[in-house]
Design brief:
Layout: H1 4-24, E1 29-33, H2 63-66, H3 69-74, H4 76-86, H5 96-106, E2 110-115, H6 121-125, E3 130-132, E4 135-142, E5 148-149, H7 151-156, E6 170-174, H8 183-195, E7 198-202, E8 223-226, E9 239-241, H9 245-252, H10 260-319
Parallel strand pairs: 1-2, 1-7, 2-3, 7-8, 8-9
Antiparallel strand pairs: 4-5, 4-6
Helix pairs in contact: 5-9
């Protein structure tokens, strides 16, 4: 007798099968990812029960207030104390989600990754087409002279990191609350979304703008949502899967390019046909050439035998 668990399992398998089919028939995929993409790498998200916003900040301020522009400017030391403890994870490594997206990109199907994360894990995994909406903790710069610094420099400094050139405050190249996103990144993201034939939205609650509105630029409903919790797009999407992002993508993205063998076989077949055709043509040409030579050789011999007696006859008359 079928149980509720059996039915749920069947639904999950059907959804995974549908996602595989959608990926197989698509050639211009865009991936929009949030904090849930990196949780399997040991980096907490922001809004879940165990997320950064729902845990103690270690200060008298709320986490959501600390990572704001005005707070950074007014309480820089408290900001950096929180920042180094809660937002930098230098030992985190790419997980199954990041690696699956690399495969999808190398297969020529994934055209852009739009990420709200600041952990650099997509690039570390090997992805090339990454649009970072909120910047990266791996880039830092002096607010006075603009000199750039890596994360190791920032972590190694006690308290507020200062520039070793001019003494200015070094800040992370991330977008804080009350700050605007870079226009180029937003424009590039929208352009990618407009051209895609499948949009996969994963690991995000779709509550942060403008990323939450990118789907409105689609000219179709080919949207897949992969997230543990519900989003406002669930009912509008073509497919919704409430599961771990890494598990789903690892199962649904082929481990190798599916069409390589077929293309190779077709190429070999075409090459073989071309070679056979050339060989046949060459043989036919050789036969024609041989026949022409044979015909040409016979005709002069016939003329010579006809003229020879006349020559003898003429010689005989002259002697007489």
């Amino acid at each position: 007798m079928e149980t509720r668990i059996d039915r749920l399992g069947s639904v999950r398998e059907d959804k995974l099968k549908q996602l595989k089919e959608l990926i197989a028939e698509s050639n211009n995929i865009v991936f929009l990812g949030g904090a849930g993409v990196s949780t399997e790498s040991g980096i907490p998200d922001f809004r879940s029960g165990a997320g950064i916003y729902n845990t103690e900040s270690g200060t008298k301020y709320r986490p959501i207030d600390i990572i704001a522009h005005d707070f950074f400017m007014e309480h820089t030391e408290i900001f950096y104390d929180f920042y180094k403890r809660k937002l930098i994870y230098p030992d985190a490594k790419p997980n199954k989600a990041h690696k699956a997206l690399v495969r999808l990109e190398r297969q020529g199907k994934l055209k852009a990754i739009i990420t709200q994360n600041i952990d650099n894990l997509h690039q570390e995994a090997g992805s090339k087409c990454v649009i970072e909406l909120h910047g990266s903790v791996f880039r830092n710069y002096c607010m006075d002279c603009g000199k750039k610094f890596d994360t190791e420099y920032v972590v190694a400094q006690e308290g507020v990191p200062h520039c070793d050139k001019c003494g200015g405050i070094v800040r992370p190249d991330i977008v804080l609350y009350e700050e605007n996103l870079e226009h180029k990144n937003v424009d590039d993201a929208i352009k990618a979304v407009k051209k895609c034939d499948l949009m996969i939205i994963a690991g995000t609650s779709l509550t942060v703008y403008p990323a939450a509105t990118f789907a409105q630029f689609l000219k179709h409903n080919r949207i897949v949502i992969i997230n543990k919790s519900s989003t406002y797009m669930d009912l509008k999407a073509l497919l919704t899967i409430h599961d771990n992002v890494g598990d789903v993508l690892d199962l649904c993205v082929p481990k190798r390019r599916p069409s390589v063998k077929k293309k190779t076989a077709a190429k070999k077949s075409t090459t073989k046909k071309t070679t056979t055709s050339k060989t046949t043509a060459a043989k036919t040409a050789a036969k024609k050439s041989s026949a022409a030579k044979s015909s040409s050789a016979k005709k002069p011999a016939s003329k010579a035998s006809t003229k020879k007696p006349a020559a003898k006859s003429g010689a005989s008359k002259t002697k007489k």
